[in-house]
Design a protein that fits this description.
124 residues, 0% helix, four-stranded antiparallel sheet, globular
């Protein structure tokens, strides 16, 4: 299984970025996919996830600004990030798991597969 994240970059506050995570080597449409982020000196934090059903879940700090989606024909998930803030600056990681239970979807330890991370920097 491989997860390849892309789309990070430097953007001014209020701007937008779209991250993508392309998956291979798995039955993609049966997987829960998620985005986590880690800022320097901080713990890895759940950002959003999307179940194989298409149901999404977001951390409160990004609700209304970020949208996660999936394209099962391309084995890819996306994170559209709008109204970015300096506190969104972090390395963003995509993760995937097939057998994850609902109560664990925000738990990084519950995901078996991880991408390499993509840097998002938001300047003030």
């Amino acid at each position: 299984v491989q997860l390849q994240a892309s789309g990070g970059g430097l953007v001014q506050a209020g701007g937008s970025l779209r991250l993508a995570c392309a998956a291979s080597g798995l039955t993609f449409n049966r997987y829960t996919m998620a985005w986590f982020r880690q800022a320097p000196g901080k713990e890895r934090e759940f950002v959003a996830c999307i179940r194989y059903s298409g149901h999404t879940n977001y951390v409160d700090s990004v609700k209304g600004r970020f949208t996660m989606s999936r394209d099962n024909t391309k084995n890819t998930v996306y994170l559209q990030m709008n109204s970015l803030k300096p506190e969104d600056t972090a390395v963003y990681y995509c993760a995937g798991d097939r057998g994850i239970i609902l109560s664990s979807i925000r738990d990084a330890d519950a995901y078996d597969y991880w991408g390499q991370g993509t840097q998002v920097t938001v300047s003030s």
